[in-house]
């Protein structure tokens, strides 16, 4: 039996909610190549579903509760990780949230509390996870997050999330600079619109999906398996010189002028 590309590596994955989650597509790709996975889920309402998904992976996987809005839970999560594995090689941050009102209002009408919550969950959580993962990544490795083209160009109804994703991409660059000497690479994947639980909370998402499919050079929607395959590439030695980058997995949509 051939040895998997990620055999002997431990991966932490934040953001699996169900089988449609992009985080789940990446978990499958990394798990199929031999990585040992630990899935962090938000709260009790997701526990049974995530545990069932973890059990379906080809190699042993654990599911641990971790609400990234709570520093105490993040500390507890990483303490549990330390007990299970002496080192961590791969970390996926696939977490974003904005209150419904913040997505429905005009951008200038977003109130202070909704702004704070959006940036706390969607951006600061990546820093909090990176800070606690760093001591465990003594062999170097990869910190990976997910973003969207609405960070660069105005996307109707995306509003506050566009600003948050722009801040997330800037965070990728600063973390890459900081952690490069430790052999830790930091990158973001930017898929086109995918029919996930989070995406369906955006008004007009169905129209956004159709527009993308009609206009993207490849004339097709993005398959979560394709996102997983790109994440697998970034986790391997072949991507050893790639850091601080946002890689588009969007069927070419981001090259268009309009």
From TrEMBL:
Name of the gene: fabI
Residues that coordinate or bind substrate: 98
Family annotation (Pfam families): adh_short_C2 (PF13561)
Keyword Magnesium tagged: no
Superkingdom classification of source: Bacteria
A biological-process GO annotation: fatty acid biosynthetic process
InterPro entries: Enoyl-ACP_Rdtase_NADH, NAD(P)-bd_dom_sf, SDR_fam
Catalysed reaction equations from the record: a 2,3-saturated acyl-[ACP] + NAD(+) = a (2E)-enoyl-[ACP] + NADH + H(+)
Pathway: Lipid metabolism; fatty acid biosynthesis
Enzyme Commission numbers on file: 1.3.1.9
Protein name, as recorded: Enoyl-[acyl-carrier-protein] reductase [NADH]
